[in-house]
Amino acid sequence: MSTTSSSPGDPPPEEFELSFKLPQFLSPEQAHFSRNAISVSTEGTNSSSRNASPSHVNAISNWREPCPLPTDKLGYILDNQVWHDVKFLIGEPPNAEIMTAHKLILAMSSTVFEAMLFGPLSNAQEEVINIPDVDPTAFSQMLKFIYTGNFDASIQNAVDLMYAAKKYDVQPLTIKCSELLRSDLTAINAVTILQAAQLLDEKELERKAESFLISNFGKVIDDEDFLTMTYANLCFFLGKDELDVGELDLFFAALRWAETECTRQGVVEATPDSQRVVLRDAIFLLRFPLISAEDFSLAVVPQKILTSDEALSILQYLTVSHDKKSQLSTLPFNSRARNTNNVYTAHFAVRLTDLVYPYVSHISYFDSFEVDQSISIVSFGFPAPDIDDAAYDVALQVQVQGSSIIIAQTNQSLAVKRRSTICVKFEKPVRIEPNVIYKVVYKLKGPDTFYADQRIENYPVKSKNSKSKTVNFRYIAYSCRLVEIAFLF
């Protein structure tokens, strides 16, 4: 560096010279340095030789003051297009937007940008890089995150933002988006989030969305988001045993999906034939044998989605007695009850007396019941013991009354506390058919129990998630010891 010499008595020089490399868009003649300020002349320059506007350059000594942090400064040069050296055209016309950035900053945050902007093919890049598959708002938010670390996405655009983050390998932003989506799954967005997670190979988010959908499918099928479900996902969920949704509700949801799919495929009119075509094998995942004969006849058959032979075979299955179903042809439809996580209970005792009632261990007791909808029994409950930590040996059978058919049996040793129900659970839920009287035969060896002195003969139970699912129990008391039945729809 060279300076002008002066003696102690001389006045300070007004100007001095600095030797350093000037920005490419300035010539030495355009820079004039004084002791108190740096001023820049923009005369003789043009828009092709510089990126900053005159106002930006003239304000070069001022804009930093309200931007104390490095991220503040980076945010400023991004928002105000200062010193940018790369341009992007983001989105599809007519909504595409031009955005500017800085190669170095992008490459620091992304291996994809590094390869794009500094790799072997970087010199072949056009003046404006076209990115049609990314939403402009999402790309802008990604740039903001890269420059400042700020994450201000909403649940409405988090999927688009995560797509951009995954495409350009901005891993911290991908994690932020995934966390936001996992925290705000609802019936109106779960299908979209699931399918975005599948597309982007976000396994944890996919598992969370899948679990939410299974637990809330009754609400999901009522929303328009359900209609965007892919065929593969539709088949996956219709095949799940854990759905707590009435089969009639699932049937009409599948019809709405098929109507929408016809539109997606360019079918002019969604007829029963065209709906059947787009449903393909998904129709066989609907468990028509779980629907009552009345609902099937009045609600399903008129839709004409099933062939005459299919409808006839289902009606035969629904109307013949349980012990004669084996004589029917094999159904092409699943008749297994869906094993939901929601356990419901029918109570047949209004209250227990303070009196105790002894069991005679060598005597078989029995009570009977009947339901009007298909259910799966989880457990039977019997009156509570009179002492704490009582032990019981239980032998129990479920029979079809009036026949020798035994559909389930169990032998257990149980420990039960005072005033709690003796709960006899099955290893697997026991399938119960509608309009069949079942006889519960049981022996209990153990202490005396309290006695149910008031009973309920008819007990309706309604599902939480589906208005079409209500089962009515008819309790036929003989020994009056069966006080509750826990079951799954």
Automatic annotation (TrEMBL):
Pfam families: BACK (PF07707), BTB (PF00651), PHR (PF08005)
Subcellular location: Cytoplasm
GO cellular component: cytosol
Keywords assigned by UniProt, alphabetized: Cytoplasm
UniProt entry tagged with the keyword Cytoplasm: yes
Keyword Endoplasmic reticulum: no
Record GO biological process: neurogenesis
Sequence ranges assigned to domain BTB in this UniProt record: 84-155
InterPro entries referenced in this protein's UniProt entry, alphabetically: BACK (IPR011705), BTB/POZ_dom (IPR000210), PHR (IPR012983), PHR_sf (IPR038648), SKP1/BTB/POZ_sf (IPR011333)
Protein name, entry field: BTB/POZ domain-containing protein 2
Native organism: Orchesella cincta
Upper classification of the organism: Eukaryota, Metazoa, Ecdysozoa, Arthropoda, Hexapoda
